[in-house]
Amino acid sequence: MKILAIRGKNLASLEDVFELDFTVGPLCSAGIFAITGQTGSGKSTILDALCLPLFDDTPRMSQAKENINVPDVQDKTINQKDCRIVLRRGAAEGFAEVDFESLGGEKFRSTWSVKRARGKADGALQNTEIRLINRSCGEEVQGRKTELLAKITELIGLTFEQFTRAVLLAQGDFATFLKAKQSEKAELLEKLTGTDIYSRISMSIFEKSKTADQDYQSIRKQIQDVELLTDEQIETYNTEKANIEKESATLKMTENLLTAKIRWIDDTDLLHKAILQAEASLADAQKVLIEAKPRYDHIAQIESVQEIRDTFRELQGAKKQVENNRNGLKQKASDWEDVSKKLLKTDSEHSILVKSQEALEKEMTTIEPIVIRARAIDVQLIGAQANVEETTKEYEIALTNKAQIEKSIQKAEKEKEVNEKTIEQEKERLIQLHQESERLNNILSAEIVALRAQLKAGMPCPVCGSLHHPTVTISSEESLKEEELRMAKEHNCKQIAVLTETIDKRKTEITRSATLLQSEQKLLTEAKQALTQKEKKKTDIHSILINLQKERSSLLDGKSVDAVEKSNVNKKQELAEKLKQATDTKTKLHSQQELLNGVITQIKSETTRLELQEVALQQEVGQWLTAKQENMTVIQLAELLSKDKQWTDEEKKALQELKTRETSLKATLEERKRNLLKHEQSEIRPSDELETKVYLSGKQQEAALQIEQSTKRRTEIDLALATHKQGKERIKIYEKALSEKEALSENWKRLNDLFGSASGSKFKEMAQGYTLDALLWYANKHLQELSKRYELRRIPDTLALQVADLDMLGDIRTVHSLSGGESFLISLALALGLSSLSSQRMKVESLFIDEGFGSLDVETLRVAMDALERLQTQGRKIGVISHVPEMTERITTQIHVTKTSNGKSIVKISNSKSFDL
């Protein structure tokens, strides 16, 4: 497994995009490189950028012990273990990317990214995303995040914990491990190798042994808690149960006999009541038959007139049809009048629409030339408007050019005036300096003493101009050294030379300003002429535009040609549509009028025929009524024939049911009398008058109470015997389970005596001894390459370490006697040994050592650097994280993480003293 490149953006202090490409120079050719920078600059963030795309986790986040939420944006929080916390504050998104070579030799790129909602810096954090691309074939690996992370683990052959022990080495843990106590060493070894499973196994054995013993004791107690009956108690219960069964049988027979006698008395009362009820129902039915005689007579009359029913119904139908035809004729006549009026109105509207259509055609022909002229002027207006806009822009450009030239002239005049005024002041100052120079040339040393006497604190010295006068305290008798006078003269000469040079420069500047003013004045004259021409052109074109606009506004009332044409077309279409509708309506009304004429003629003819039929039917009905000789009127006949067949059938059925009910009730009364006679002859009945229902009920309750008491006692006996039987069965089950639990408890007890403990320390220390032997084997292989002098050994039967000094004939030394450099070498060998132990089935070609080299002295640092330089010869690319300046002398290829401002840092790669982004 090999790391090819690391990239990232907006990760903690690293805001800008950074890239560490180990396939190109200078990192490609460097076997060892340093990641340097001040504390807090972001060195370890580069390692975060390495871990996030591979595992969606970082060592720093995973070390957080407590689930504590810290403030995020607005009122939101984020857990301190959440790897999204690495996103830079104020950033809306960020990413980390790693290119790596898999165990199979293929190249992959994994990208980790995180965003905030809506792409805003104050949005809520979204879930992280992982993308995996096979760069060897250019295809993206598909799957959910968990599936992609599992695929990455498979490709590199390391889990997150193995990666942090095989690729990211933290030597500080091994420096602590080297000199720790045995109990602490087991804890550290467990942490470094990830073998905490032995502690869990030891505690699990202890808990399972404890649980197995508790289960065994629990079953023993359950067996002791089961209560059984004695043989004497069982025999007594069985004898009592037999006696109870005999007594219960006798009592049950007595109770059944008493119940049968009570039931006989109840049945006798019910039979008498039933006979009375049947007699009453029969009397009611006979009364109803008498009251229904008029209904029988009425149904007989209805039967007698059925022969004339059809003729009479034809007569009624003919009368109704004649009436309907007369009403229909009136309605059709009214409809004919309405259609005639609508037809007259439609004819008028049709004529008006024809005239309107002709007028519109004439109007469109008249305005056609005006439309053509208006369209031509519209085209001219577009061109004129464009010319106006173009000339306006040209005029504004000329006006701006003139204003800029005038502004430049004002600036040049002001600069010239300032320079002229300043040069006058400087000339006056030059004269003063010349005068001062002449005075200094003529001054005597004795006079300087007098001048010193005149110096005052805070006032400038007339010689040097200083406000501080350290020589005031010199006595008046002490003469001034000639060196002081010389220095004052030299200072004055320098001021004169500087001021003279300044004046010459200002004169040159004034000359340049004058030349510039002359040139700008000429340009101003030309700009004014151009502005005058542009203004005249603008006025002429604007005048043309106004004339065209006036002419156009007089045509078509200023309306657009398209609007006028569209309006006329719409009017024409609207008139054509209305004319078509009027024509269709006219045709439709003519058809309706002709149809109504035919219908009216037909109704009149049908009415005449029905009237003749009505007369004939009336004569036939009258003849039938005369022949009947029952004085029946037509109204009575109509009433009798108004009852339809369904009503007649239902009435016949109802009258028949009345007779049937009378017959049924007579039969029921006879049946109930026979039942009473049979009941009174029954064998089981009260023997005499003393056995009343009250007396018999009392005797029955006494028998039932005795039976209940016997049953209750028998139930108690059955329950006691059943409990005894169940107890014996439970004991058999418990004894079998007890045997199994006892064997299981003994097995766990023996295993617990060997490996179990409540804290997990027993098996942990045993297992860590074997783990430590394997670690020391790998560590000594690396130690031979780093320093052939030492060999790590384990003190027998302990986790303590000792060192064999091979240069001293294998002399054994305690680890506490090692110097700082020696401890570093051995700690480094242990770290590399763990790397080999964690990746013994694969070759890990990239190592990152995160170690505090700042704690090493100069000599130890030299030893450490020698060891690291020898280590790179094994074909590994080694990155060392440190902020020690002395390392730059030995490691020429460096990744610098430099703080800038606002908590930001930038990443630069350098080789020797040349820096490249």
Task: Summarize this structure briefly.
The protein has 19 helices and 18 strands. With 917 residues, the chain is an alpha+beta fold.
Written overview of the protein:
The chain is of the alpha+beta class and 917 residues long. Helices cover 66% and strands 10% of the residues. The protein contains 19 helices and 18 strands. It has helices at residues 43-55, 59-62, 145-156, 160-166, 171-178, 182-193, 197-225, 231-291, 293-304, 309-442, 445-453, 482-554, 561-628, 634-641, 645-680, 693-755, 761-786, 820-838, 858-871, and strands at 2-9, 18-21, 32-37, 69-71, 77-79, 93-101, 107-115, 129-134, 139-141, 168-169, 790-794, 801-805, 811-814, 846-850, 877-881, 893-899, 905-911, 914-916. The strands form four sheets. A seven-stranded mixed beta sheet has the order 10-14-15-3-16-17-18, with helices on both faces. A hairpin with a 4-residue loop joins strand 8 (129-134) and strand 9. Helix 5 (171-178) packs antiparallel against helix 6. The radius of gyration is 64 Å and the shape is flat.
Main traits of this protein?
single chain, 917 residues, alpha+beta, seven-stranded mixed β-sheet, six-stranded antiparallel β-sheet, 66% helix, disordered C terminus
Q: Based on CA inertia axes, which overall geometry fits?
A: flat
**Overall SS class:** alpha+beta
Please state how the strands of the largest beta sheet are arranged side by side. 10-14-15-3-16-17-18
In round numbers, the mean pLDDT is 79
Enumerate how many helices there are, as a single number. 19
Approximately how much helix is present in the residues?
55-70%
Hey, roughly how much beta strand do the residues contain? 5-15%
Low-pLDDT ranges: 474-480, 913-917
Distance between the termini: 27 Å
Main β sheet profile:
7 strands, mixed
Number of DSSP-assigned strands: 18
Q: Please compute the radius of gyration using only Cα atoms.
A: 64 Å
